[in-house]
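$ ./design --mode recover --in tokens.txt
reading tokens...
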């Protein structure tokens, strides 16, 4: 049982780290221009030699970007909260009870990440200026999609997990 518990904790922490990196790292959208110039754009900044706020991020047309920012932050916070709730329930629950509250929080985190990545996929052109539309998805975008099934599976593991001896 100790090995299963260690695996679940490691799996949860890996998902949380992926969420942190995908939310903070500046590589949701990558535009390779002629020469060595590469422009990285994420939820917060666009960077080539210098970084500046994402253009049009304050307009109504780019309200999608604000929803994505909020959903990724909420997903990351919920993932961390579910880990702390799991640790608390690990010592407080009686034997044989399930970690349902932890699972619900983790599944909500998974839902937030899915919503954010889906909206980014569908609406990326609405908040990128015309010069940045000819790019490709970056590593942070891919990490966000990888963290979605990890948090989802982690949530289901908590639903199935019972506290045993």
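writing sequence...
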């Amino acid at each position: 049982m100790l090995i299963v518990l260690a695996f679940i904790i490691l799996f949860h922490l890996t998902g949380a780290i992926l969420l942190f990196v995908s939310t903070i790292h500046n590589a949701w959208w990558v535009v390779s221009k002629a020469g060595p110039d590469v422009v990285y754009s994420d939820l917060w900044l666009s960077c080539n030699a210098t970084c500046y706020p994402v253009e049009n991020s304050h307009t109504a047309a780019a309200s999608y970007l604000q929803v994505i920012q909020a959903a990724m932050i909420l997903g990351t916070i919920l993932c961390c909260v579910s880990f702390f709730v799991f640790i608390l329930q690990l010592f407080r629950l009686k034997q044989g009870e399930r970690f349902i509250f932890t699972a619900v929080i983790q599944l909500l985190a998974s839902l937030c990440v899915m919503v954010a990545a889906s909206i980014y996929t569908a609406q990326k052109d609405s908040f990128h200026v015309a010069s940045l539309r000819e790019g490709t998805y970056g590593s942070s975008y891919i990490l966000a999609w990888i963290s979605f099934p990890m948090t989802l599976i982690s949530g289901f593991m908590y639903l199935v997990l019972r506290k045993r001896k």
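exit 0
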